[in-house]
User: What shape does this take?
Amino acid sequence: MTSVAEIGRLAKAHDRIIERLDASHGARLATILDQLEFRVVEIANEIPIDRRFKEGRLTRAELAIRQRPMIEAAIRTTFLGWAHQTINGYDEAASSVVKMMKHSISGFIENDADIINNLKRISFAGYEDIANRFLDTLSNGLYQNAIAGRSQVEAVKDMQQAINGVFIKSDDAEISRLVKFVKDNADDPKKSKLVALGIEKLHTFYGADRAGNNLRRYAYQQVHDGLMQFSASFTAKKARDAGLKHYQYYGSIVTDSRPWCVRHAGMTMTIEEIREKWANNSWKGKAPGEPLIVRGGYNCRHHFVPVEPEWVEEREAA
Assistant: This one.
């Protein structure tokens, strides 16, 4: 009989691979967004300005609207190009799922490649939605600023913030130092308070974007949720292949874990029990969809591990 220890070992190994992919994808994204910001600034600066005004107001609104194809091309060659490469890395996550379930399946089956490609398309569609939303934000905002005769500096800053929030490029040495500190230490729990203070100070510099309505925020969320939901979807498919109808909710509890995750971590439930409990509870951050896939909601790091009830009997007996 498969032991609880073996299930835990396999689940932890899968977690480590997912965490590594998540971190590497996020690290590359930071560079890509900086590249996109630089290109968009170049595009915006191509619009003539009225030099009769000290602040250099935008003019020629008809040229501003013509910049949309250039902005779209910039988004596709940077952000969506990176997204395509990132999603190709999901193959490693799929292989890890098979290894995690080696006690119940023999490996990939004939139609796995089709399933994996379809799941990749779903994830890429999430990135395309983000790209299209911010194409409208950037191009429409530039046109509206040109119509209003806003200064080029302020219009460009709006576009930078639409991409990177308060983490935009700056000629100010103190701002650049703060941005670098926050980026370098965002994932260090020991420096969480200093990072929070740095972000707060950046907000005071810019006086905007406290809600985080920028491409950076949504892209980072898609990095994590896209990968986790791909893993969860493929796991559910392989569980069906193996005829498994029970799942153990796996993952560590941290200070900001959601009530759903705190309550069910370590529990073994049938698919029907999971769906019933999930439907009859609500919590902040709960996402719509199949609970096996969306789990605790946005940015959740827990996952369901397919099991047979007798595999976990030793834990229940203890």
User: Anything to note?
Assistant: The chain is about 65% helix and 5% strand. Strands lie at 49-50, 57-58, 246-250, 268-270, 303-307. The chain has a mean pLDDT of 85. The longest strand covers residues 246-250.
